[in-house]
Design brief:
With 304 residues, this protein is an alpha/beta fold. The protein is 43% helix and 12% strand. α6 (168-179) packs parallel to α11.
Length: 304
């Protein structure tokens, strides 16, 4: 048993391994492994002793396959690694860390085999046709589901694919993509089964998420009559996903960069799509971009 002091704010003291189990797995019984931890609210910051857990996980130390690592668990399936013995957690983290670099080396080698000049061309700069604004959900990688190659899409992702005028991150992305990269298409892509949309439909205080999810609740308020007329809960949920995408498209159209670029160049065009997990296909909501732009500019006209 390793023991040492715990650095803490006035909130609860707890062991590093317990924090790791909560962060990576779930709530669990208290641990026999104890090491320093700084806690600020819901965030846990390991201090001096904790790096020993991952000291041997440097990507440079694994030039060979991750199969040389001690196996934390024969399967990465969540139903089994959640029950992993605590002593194997650090080994599991090392395996999953090293696996990314192994896959990266395989990917890079394959790209060079197919096109020896691939990385030379990639390093010359980007000229993407698309700006993709999607959800942060890990199951929806933009390039993979669209078949696009590196350099073809400028990508921004956040919870529930929102475009909020107070979010400087997405506003900066749109401005850069339109004014500097001169993208031809802007895609707002949501997905059925969106946890952010479902959370917004839940009557519950979600803490720091409240102001973010309020944007989705506002979409519900705007379309309350239509949504309340849908008796099936899943169908209502799916329709809110679609309406959220449409409203975020409107928020994109409200920006000065999009309006002014379209007036001068006839691009970009804004599209609303939804991805389905059940079949892996994208559904085009067939946004009437020109009609939407015309309606929006009655109030939000930012073209000189």
């Amino acid at each position: 048993m390793i023991s040492s002091r715990v650095v803490t704010t006035p909130l609860l003291q707890q062991s590093t391994s317990a924090a790791i189990r909560r962060a990576f797995i779930s709530n669990s019984p208290s641990s026999s492994f104890s090491s320093p931890l700084v806690r600020f609210g819901p965030f846990h910051f390991p201090t001096r002793a904790a790096p020993s857990l991952l000291r041997h996980c440097s990507s440079d130390s694994h030039s060979s396959s991750s199969s040389n690592l001690p196996k934390a668990n024969p399967s990465s399936d969540k139903t089994t690694w959640r029950d992993m013995p605590e002593k194997d957690i650090s080994r599991y983290l090392c395996e999953t860390h090293a696996r990314v670099f192994e896959h990266n080396r395989t990917w890079a080698a394959e790209k060079k085999r197919v096109d020896p000049e691939f990385f030379t061309k990639l390093s010359a700069g980007q000229n993407p046709e698309y700006l993709w604004i999607g959800c942060s959900d890990s199951r929806i990688p933009a390039e993979q589901i669209t078949g696009l190659e590196p350099g073809h899409a400028f990508v921004h992702r956040n919870i529930a694919n929102l475009v909020c005028n107070t979010d400087l991150n997405v506003m900066a992305v749109i401005n850069y993509a339109v004014r500097h990269l001169k993208v031809k298409h802007i895609v707002v892509c949501g997905h059925y089964g969106c946890g952010g949309v479902k959370a917004a439909m839940t009557a519950k205080d979600l803490g720091i998420l409240n102001p973010w999810l309020r944007n989705i609740r506002d979409v519900y308020r705007l379309h309350e009559k239509e949504l309340d007329a849908i008796p099936d809960e899943e169908a209502r949920y799916n329709r809110l996903v679609e309406l959220n995408v449409i409203e975020q498209c409107k928020n994109v159209v409200k920006t000065a960069g999009v309006q002014q670029s379209y007036a001068a160049n006839s691009y970009p065009i804004v599209h609303g799509w939804v991805f389905g997990f059940n079949d892996g296909l994208l559904r085009d909501l067939k946004i009437d971009f020109e009609g939407m732009l015309k309606d929006i500019q009655k109030i939000y006209n930012l073209v000189d």
